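Convert to structure. Protein one:
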Amino acid sequence: MINYAYEITEILSPVIGEELAGETVRIQCERMGISPQEITRKNLIKIAAWVEKVLTIFADREIASEIKEQILMLR
């Protein structure tokens, strides 16, 4: 079974740092009413879209889009 929270954090870490990446995953899970350990494949689309939106603040749109695609490939 894939630990999606870990994998998403690993994808985000090179762009925004490990601590902020972990917080990003935690906050999105909180917004969705789940814990990071409860992320499933069906949550990835929503998480990826939110991450893309947030990353445009820290990085350019191209990088944000690339990260979104990497998250979606975890499926």
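Protein two, convert as well:
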Amino acid sequence: MQELASRYLEHFSIDFDGGARVSLESTAPEELKELDRVICDLFGPDKQVCVYEALCVAAEAELPHCAEVDEKVCPLDLYFVVVDFLGAQAFPT
């Protein structure tokens, strides 16, 4: 899951003009775009910074389900949606 999260992070860009803005690139894999749509449906628009943070935490954590998440940046429920998505992609059944 760490490797997958790291690969997905490559498809985000950060714009620092007028504050930091995170956006998903149009070249992102279709499954990552689908995750973005699901997050928007569940949590509202403009949550890409949360998805980016969740992927950063998952990429760095040996045990993503037990990782410490800064809830000011990414709510726990959103984080676990991302982690569950990563698990489904990394270990399909």
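The helical segments are 2-9, 30-43, 48-60, 76-90. The first helix runs from residue 2 to 9.
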